[in-house]
Amino acid sequence: MEEIKKRILVVDDDPALREIFGEKLVMAGFLVSYAKNGYEGYDLARSVKPDFILLDVMMPELDGPATLDKLKSDPECKDIPVAFLTSIEDRPEDVKAAKEVGAIDYWNKAMELDELVARVSAIVKNK
């Protein structure tokens, strides 16, 4: 029996980072959808029903925390695990704040791509 591929949604306003993260996740066997801002990410989450969302913190129009708030208030999306992505240095207070608003974690965009895949795989393996 063929294993069903897990769906990942990458929401980031930087097209190069979307492509880099997405390509690595596709190579690891995931189905990947892309959004360039929070509004698009929210709409895609409702239609695609991803197993996991990588969500940039700082974006124009609708930032990561506001997008997460919309997702968590939507019955169709509230249970999708979300990790924030940031290009700024990780600070314990940021990680704590991210978890308080419903993110499962807060990851630095500078992490090794293999580490990103390992973390995503660990989160979605039982979903």
From TrEMBL:
SMART domains: REC. The keyword Phosphoprotein applies. Keywords: Phosphoprotein. Signal peptide: none annotated. InterPro entries: Bact_response_regulator, CheY-like_superfamily, Sig_transdc_resp-reg_receiver. The modification 4-aspartylphosphate is found at residue 56. GO terms for biological process: phosphorelay signal transduction system. Residues 7-124 form the Response regulatory domain. Pfam families: Response_reg (PF00072). This is Two component transcriptional regulator, LuxR family. It comes from Candidatus Wolfebacteria bacterium GW2011_GWA2_47_9b.
